[in-house]
Structures are given as structure tokens and as C-alpha cells.
Write a structure and sequence with these properties.
Length: 190
């Protein structure tokens, strides 16, 4: 397991907005090492980490990140994108969904948005804060966002001091092209 460049950029966005985090309900999906979720919890958010129910090793990595960062009580659940499982049904309404580098296989894009759409039914004001590494110019979320009644705002990296090769002493972003997206329900005013 690996901290992906996107995770460092999303963590920087969270740090920039840290004063808005205390008390917020935050769910990280496809969390892996969980850098953004761990940071959100350290900033006072009520965080639930998740990764695929079919990848128990990844869920174990989430738990180890909690232990190593002195957050032993943080909830970790198995959520596979596109599956309406008991654990998804049982989740309380969320304010923010974090998703770092989850848009990497185009065949998964709609499953991810299905899970987000389900959570939008619980709280229409929930926002998906996601970082996306541009790997192919052919991939686009636009048509799927339209289909699922969602809108997307691109946040320029310079708006949160992330337009550099290294962020917070991490050189991971390097020369990768990473985009910061805030996705919300189209009928809600952002
Ligand atoms: C590129 S890694 C990103 C990990 C972490 N968010 C980061 O940026 O460091 C993709 C993550 O998505 C998870 N994942 C892959 N397929 C999934 C699925 N169908 N449902 C839920 N999680 C999935 C993987 O286990 C992995 O943790």
C-alpha cells in the first residue's frame, strides 16, 4: 500500500479548510492508507474510513493507520463502490465524502457515483471532495455527473497552495497532474 500523490493534495485542501471541519461527519471511500481521513479526524471531524469489502487487506491498512496515528476508536467499514450493502444503509448522513485517487478505472466511475448518489439521498447537501490524477485525456466524468444529477466545481490548486512539486514536505505530487474537484447534488446551491 502506498500514499498516492492525490492523497497529499486532498490532505492539503483539508488543512486549508481545517477550521470548517470540527464536528463534521466525514466518510472516506477507497481510503487505503487514509491520509485525508486521518487528517480530518485530527482536525476534529467525525470520520469513518472505508475501503472495498472485497479487499480485506486494504481494510486492515485503514485500521493500522488509525492505530499508528493514535485514533484507535475510528470506525472502519467495508464499502464496495456501487454495492448497496447493510453497512452503507446503516451509515448516518454525511457532510463530506473524501475520495483520493478513486477515479482510476473508467469502469468503476459509475459505481463510485452510485454510492455517492445514495449518500446524497440521506443528505442532499453532502459534498464529495475528490482529487483526481489525470492519466488519460480521454477519460471524463462530465456525462456521468449529468446522468446522476450532480455538478462539479474544479478548485484551482493555487487556491490552496497545492500548485507545487512538493507539499508539506512531501515530494509525492511531483510532476503528476492532479485536479481537485468538489462534486455536489445539482439541485443544491454550492
Ligand atoms: C489508487 S488507491 C488510492 C488509495 C488512497 N485513497 C490514496 O489516495 O492514497 C485506490 C483505493 O481504492 C480502493 N478500491 C479499489 N476498488 C474499490 C472498490 N470497488 N470499492 C471500494 N474501494 C475500492 C483500493 O483498495 C485502494 O485503497
Amino acid at each position: 500500500m502506498y500514499v498516492w500523490p492525490c492523497a497529499v493534495v486532498l490532505a492539503q485542501y483539508l488543512w486549508f479548510h481545517r477550521r470548517s471541519l470540527p464536528g463534521k461527519a466525514v466518510l472516506e471511500i477507497g481510503a487505503g492508507v487514509s491520509l485525508p481521513g486521518i487528517l480530518a479526524a485530527k482536525c476534529g471531524a467525525k470520520v469513518i474510513l472505508s475501503d472495498s469489502l472485497e479487499l480485506p487487506y486494504c481494510l486492515e491498512i485503514c485500521r493500522q493507520s488509525c492505530q499508528m496515528n493514535n485514533l484507535p476508536c475510528m470506525q472502519v467499514v467495508g464499502l464496495t463502490w456501487g454495492h448497496i450493502s447493510q453497512d452503507l444503509l446503516a451509515l448516518p448522513p454525511q457532510d463530506i465524502i473524501l475520495a483520493s485517487d478513486v477515479f482510476f478505472e473508467p469502469e468503476d466511475f459509475e459505481d463510485i457515483l452510485t454510492t455517492v448518489y445514495f449518500l446524497m439521498q440521506k443528505n442532499p447537501k453532502v459534498q464529495l471532495w475528490s482529487t483526481y490524477q489525470v492519466r488519460s485525456a480521454d477519460w471524463s466524468l462530465e456525462a456521468l455527473l449529468y446522468k446522476w444529477d450532480m455538478k462539479c466545481v474544479h478548485i484551482p490548486l493555487e487556491a490552496f497552495d497545492a500548485d507545487k512539486d512538493d507539499i508539506a514536505e512531501s515530494v509525492l505530487p511531483g510532476r503528476h497532474t492532479v485536479e481537485m474537484l468538489v462534486i455536489s447534488f445539482a439541485k443544491d446551491s454550492l
